[in-house]
Write a structure and sequence with these properties.
With about 140 residues, the protein is an alpha+beta fold. The protein has 4 helices and 7 strands. Strand 5 and strand 6 form a beta hairpin. Helix 1 packs across helix 2.
Length: about 140
Amino acid sequence: MSTAVPPASLPVPRPKDTRQREVISRLLSAAEGPLSVPELHGRALSELPSLGVATVYRTLKLLQEQGAAHIVTLDGENLYEASGRGHHHHFSCRTCGRVFTLSTCPLALPPGTVYPGGFVVEAHEVTLYGQCPACAATKD
């Protein structure tokens, strides 16, 4: 009689937490908006001087698989932000290029709204473009 445990009932090993994963996750959570890989890598280098960009990509992939981070695509560029921030939108500064999270929604558009032609709204994403407060202040 075999006492081997069938593979389906074996516990799935959880990836071990690493210093790199902790720093990247913390930086995403503290960011004022979604970050590009180069931005995230640059911020992490102050704490992890030997961090490679490949490790950032691998960590972001793992955080996405775990549901802790997700991709935001703006102007064809993939940016990353922490999950769990609820309904929000983004503001992209055309001067400095930074992207900010907006906690208020500029649209009163409930799911189920039907537009002319029969388009049924399930969700929406909005990105506003202009100048952030810092850039607008320097323009005067």
